[in-house]
Design brief:
By secondary structure, this protein is α+β, with helices and mostly antiparallel strands. It is built from four helices and nine strands; from the N terminus they run ββαββαβαβαβββ.
Length: 218
């Protein structure tokens, strides 16, 4: 559920592809083309959150968390002082979607949504537990930084609709920061005991999350 090569700056750096961190890493960095070392950190962070904290998938002993959808996804990673702090992945219209496969039966009555060229699915959204709540990076909450990069990423590729499977609580959090979504299903109790629902976010109806002077490069 819920890519340019430049020298990292001292405050923040967001771009399409990035080099491994130097001895003095930037304050924060967001990339949608993580290298192998960065991807390893993100898989480990996913295990920390989804296998141990939430216990949604895998087992507490898992050091990394990944699945069959990873090979066809674009991975967005947020790093603060070189440490993996936030993550989500994008499933483009021509790749398998979780909402149309493993969640199709319980949430959509096995009636998949149409995967149009101007749409995508987002999954595995997370922020490291130590950086939730009141934590801010360059005056912005980590979640806002991650979602702002997603917003810029989608707009630069003419992606308007973002489908997702979220908990009702996550949908409320999104709405509070201006990312209001339309429900596609009622909340359903899953096998792990967590309630989940399908929803779609229309970026055509959402203002820029971070002012233009602070926007992330696409």
């Amino acid at each position: 559920m819920l890519e340019s090569n430049q020298t990292p700056s001292t405050n923040h750096h967001t771009c399409d592809s990035v080099h491994p961190f130097a001895e003095n890493p930037p304050h924060y960095l967001i990339t949608h083309n993580p290298n192998t070392a960065q991807m390893d950190k993100l898989y480990r962070l996913r295990a920390e959150v989804f296998c141990r904290e939430l216990a949604w998938v895998g087992s507490p002993e898992d050091e990394s968390e990944y699945d069959k959808f990873d090979n066809t996804s674009t991975h967005l990673g947020l790093f603060i002082h070189g440490q993996a702090t936030g993550y989500l992945r994008v499933h483009h219209h021509n790749t398998p979607w979780m909402i149309n496969t493993i969640f199709s039966g319980p949430l959509l009555d096995s009636k998949p949504t149409t995967q149009l060229a101007n749409s995508c699915e987002v999954s595995r959204l997370l922020i490291k537990s130590t950086h939730r709540g009141k934590t801010k990076v360059s005056n912005h909450p980590p979640l806002n930084l991650l979602l702002s990069h997603l917003q810029d990423y989608c707009r630069s590729r003419d992606i308007r609709y973002v489908y997702m499977v979220v908990t009702p609580a996550t949908r409320v959090v999104f709405a509070r920061i201006g990312f209001k979504s339309t429900p596609l299903s009622k909340p359903v109790k899953m096998e792990d005991g967590c309630y989940a629902m399908a929803a779609v976010l229309d970026f055509g109806q959402v203002e820029a999350l971070i002012p233009s002077k602070d926007t992330l490069c696409s």
